[in-house]
C-alpha cells in the first residue's frame, strides 16, 4: 500500500514537472521572436504546437492524479511535451537564421543545426498520437476490446517509428529550412525514403479513418452517461483532427482547444474522471485571484487619486481591505459556483423550500406531484426524475420530468408505510452505474434526495388518498345503484305481486258479498289477510336489510350483545366491552360498526376454534374503534380473502377509515377505525347558560 502511494506521488511529481517544462519551453519559443525583434512569430503561429504544448500539458497534469484518467493524462502530457520540443526547436532554428527560413546557416552554429534536425521530425509523434491514438482510447485510455482495434494501435506505432527514422536520416536540406542540410543524413536512406514517405502518409490517412470510426463505434456501443462522456471527449478529438487538416493554419491554434474543452464539459456535466470537484475549486480560485487583482489595482488607483500618491500606506490599505473581504467573498463565490454547477444540491433547505412552494401552488394532488418532480429535477440538475405511486386498487401512477428515471430508486414512506418510489436517473453523470447495478446515491446527492423525500411522500400520499376517494365514490355510487336495483327487484317481484293479489282478492270479496255468497267472501278474505301478512313480513325484511332494527331498539351495544348471544350458543364465550358515548354516534358509523363486528365475531366463532372472543368498542370525539380478537389458532398461511374480509374493509373505507386483520400466536384480531365529525359536548359538561339552552332545545 505504501509502495502504491509512493509510486503515485512520484508519478504526480513527474507529471507536474513535465507540464512545467513543456509550458516553459512553449512560452520561451513564443517570447524569443518578440524579444529578439526578428519577427518570425507569424511562422510559429502557423502551427498549433505552442497552444498544444501548453493546454495539453496542463490538462494531462490535472488528469494524472486520478486513476480513471491516468492513461489519458500521460498521453496528453506526451503530446504536450513533444509539441513543446518541436516549437522550441523551430523557434531556436528560426532565431539562428535571423528569421529567414531560406537563409543559409552561418558557420559555427552546430547547435542550431541540431535543433533544425529535431524540428524536422518532432512534429510527427504528437500529430500521430492526436490523430490516430487518442480517438481510439477516449475517454479512459483503453481501446475497444476487439483485437482489430489493438492491431491498429500497433500499426500506428510502427508508422510513427518508421516515419521518424526516415525523416531523421533522409539526406539533403530540410523541408522547413531549405538553407540547412541534415547533419545526420545517410545517402543510402535517400532512395528508400522516396518509397517509405508516401507509404507513411497513406498509412497515416488510413489510421485516421480507423480512429474516427472507432469514436463512432464507441459512442454507438455506449449508453446513458458513458455515451455523453465518450461523445464530448471523442468528438472533440475527432473534430480537432479534421479541423487541423482542413482549416487555415492560423485557426488551428483555437481548434486544438476543443480537446481540453471537451474533457472539461464531460468532467463538469457528466463527472468524467470525478474531476467536477477539482474544476469547481479551480473556477473559484481563478475568479478569486482575478477579482482580488482587479480590486487591488482599482483600490490603489482610487485611494492614490484621493491622497495624491499611490505609494506609502496606500498599497497596505488596499491589501488589508482585500484580505478583510476575502473570506466572505470566497464563501459567496463558492456558493454561486456550486449553484451554477450542481444546482441546489449543496443547500437542501433551499431545495425543500422550492419543492414545498411548487406543491402549495398546485391545484390538484396530481399536479402537485408533477410540479414537485419537475422542481427536484431542475434543482438537482438531474437527467430525469420520476415518482411512482401504487394506488390502492393496484394500478400505478407515474409523474416524470426529463428522461426515463430508472437508475436509482428511493422509497417514499409516510405513516409507517411506503406510499411511492422516487426514481432518479443518474445525477447529470454523477455516480455512474456500477457493473452489478445502479450505485446508490452518496454524499450531497443522498442528503438532497432524502431532504426532498419528505415533501414528495406527502404529495404521493395525497395522490393515493385522492385515488382512494375517487374509488370510494365510485364504489358508493355502484353500491347505491345495486341497492336501488335490489329494492326495485324485491318490491317489483315480491311485495308488488302480494299487494296486487290482496287488491284482487278484496275485489272478489266485494263481488261475493254483493251476490250474497258469504262463504266465498270469508274464504277470499282469509286469503287476502294471509297475503297482507306476507307483505308485512317482506317490508320488515327490507327495512332490516337497510338498517338493523335492533340498533334503533337496543342501541349499538345492546344490538351486538343480542347478536352474539345467538351466534355463540353452544360455542365460545364472547365478552363485549364498551367505552365512550356510543349512544350519539352517526347512523352510518353505527351500521358500519355493527356489520364489521358481526362479521368478525361470526368468523371467529366459525373458523378460529377459539374458547373466548373479545369485542371492544371505544368511542372518542372524532372516531370509533372496533376491536375483535380471539384466542384461536390464527389465520392459515395460505389464506384466500373471502367476501366477508373484503366487506369489512370496504365498510371502513367508505367512511374514510381503515380495517386491518392480523394474526399472532395468540389468535386473530380485527381492528377498525371509523372517523366521524366531532360530537357535541355532553349536557353535564356544558357551562350553565349553554346547558339551559341545550335543555330548551
From TrEMBL:
Histidine kinase domain: residues covered: 595-678
Main location: membrane
Keywords, alphabetical: Cell membrane, Kinase, Membrane, Transferase, Transmembrane, Transmembrane helix, Two-component regulatory system
One GO molecular-function entry: kinase activity
Its membrane topology: Multi-pass membrane protein
Keyword Cell membrane: yes
One of the Pfam families matching this protein, by short name: HATPase_c
Cited SUPFAM superfamilies: ATPase domain of HSP90 chaperone/DNA topoisomerase II/histidine kinase (SSF55874)
TM segment ranges: 50-67, 74-95, 115-137, 149-169, 199-217, 229-248, 254-272, 284-307
Signal peptide: none
Subcellular compartments: Cell membrane
Name listed for the protein in its UniProt record: Histidine kinase
